[in-house]
């Protein structure tokens, strides 16, 4: 709540309705922004969305599946990690709060590092866009899958359990540089629409995963939690394999300018 209030104050101080009303930008910057917006409006004028091609595009479905699987592992830990640490690992409340936050701090670091690494590989021409997206997505799904499986074999070893769960969230952040940005590669003209679709798939586990977790952990036993982690691991691995087969970093023919005169 306090962070949200602070952000609101900053937003009211620095955000304005339009470039013309912003008092702290130079005339050159204002002109550049207005010209860019004008060019964007002209490019999008009269453009209809080719829905038939969108819904039958396998590279997009690869993104959707990978985003769903990534979201499953993320939401399982986001909603259930404090409970697991309290009821199974028996951490005190203060320790629980600090250790539950640790995976997401690591995830933030890996998100930035993954983006920088992907950009470096692309700029230097070391890997194709398709290869970069597949490597990042595989790291972001397969490695967390292995970590979740490993966490099921450490019993109540606190250090190893927390370490594997932290690594699971951290490596999961690599999907940001993979399937998380892949819409811009396959259909830049419709990237906003595609991102909306993919983000819907990504957030479906937000209510599905906690519901299943609650059903499986009725007694909060170690065996029940292992089942939760193993199911998440299987879902993650399926997403990695599906994306490896059907994912692509190439712009689709239907998304090229002039490729379709009318939306299908």
Number of domains: 2
Number of H- or I-type helical stretches: 11
Q: What Rg, in angstroms, do the CA atoms define?
A: 22 Å
Structural class: mainly alpha
In total, the number of strands is 0
The CATH architecture category of the largest domain equals Up-down Bundle
The CATH superfamily of the largest domain is MFS general substrate transporter like domains
Helix-residue proportion: over 70%
| Molecular shape | globular
Q: Describe the sheet with the most strands.
A: none
Element pattern in H and E: HHHHHHHHHHH
The CATH topology of the largest domain is given as: Growth Hormone, Chain: A
What share of residues are in beta strands?
under 5%
Unreliable stretches, pLDDT < 50, 5 or more residues? 260-264
Overall pLDDT level: 90
**CATH class descriptor name of the largest domain:** Mainly Alpha
Intertermini distance: 45 Å
GO molecular function: symporter activity
GO biological process, one term: monoatomic anion transport
Protein name: Major facilitator superfamily (MFS) profile domain-containing protein
Organism: Petromyzon marinus (Sea lamprey)
């Amino acid at each position: 709540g306090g962070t949200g209030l602070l952000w609101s104050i900053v937003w009211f101080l620095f955000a304005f309705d339009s470039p013309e009303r912003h008092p702290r930008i130079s005339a050159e910057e204002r002109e550049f922004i207005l010209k860019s917006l004008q060019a964007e409006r002209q490019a999008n004028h009269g453009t209809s969305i080719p829905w038939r091609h969108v819904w039958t595009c396998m590279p997009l479905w690869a993104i959707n599946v990978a985003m769903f699987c990534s979201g499953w592992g993320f939401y399982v830990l986001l909603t259930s990690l404090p409970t697991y640490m309290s009821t199974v690992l028996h951490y005190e409340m203060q320790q629980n709060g600090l250790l539950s936050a640790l995976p997401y701090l690591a995830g933030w670091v890996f998100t930035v590092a993954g983006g920088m690494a992907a950009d470096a590989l692309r700029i230097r021409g070391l890997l194709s866009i398709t290869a970069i997206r597949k490597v990042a997505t595989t790291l972001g799904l397969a490695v967390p899958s292995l970590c979740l499986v490993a966490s099921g074999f450490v019993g109540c070893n606190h250090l190893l359990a927390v370490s594997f769960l932290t690594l699971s969230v951290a490596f999961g952040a690599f999907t940001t540089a993979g399937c998380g940005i892949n819409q811009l590669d396959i259909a830049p003209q419709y990237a906003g629409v595609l991102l909306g679709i993919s983000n819907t798939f990504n957030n479906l586990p937000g209510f599905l995963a906690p519901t299943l977790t609650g059903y499986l952990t009725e007694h909060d036993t170690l065996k029940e939690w292992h089942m939760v982690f193993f199911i998440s691991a299987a879902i993650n691995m399926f997403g990695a394999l599906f994306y490896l087969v059907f994912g692509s970093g190439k712009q689709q023919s239907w998304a090229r300018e002039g490729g379709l005169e009318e939306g299908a």
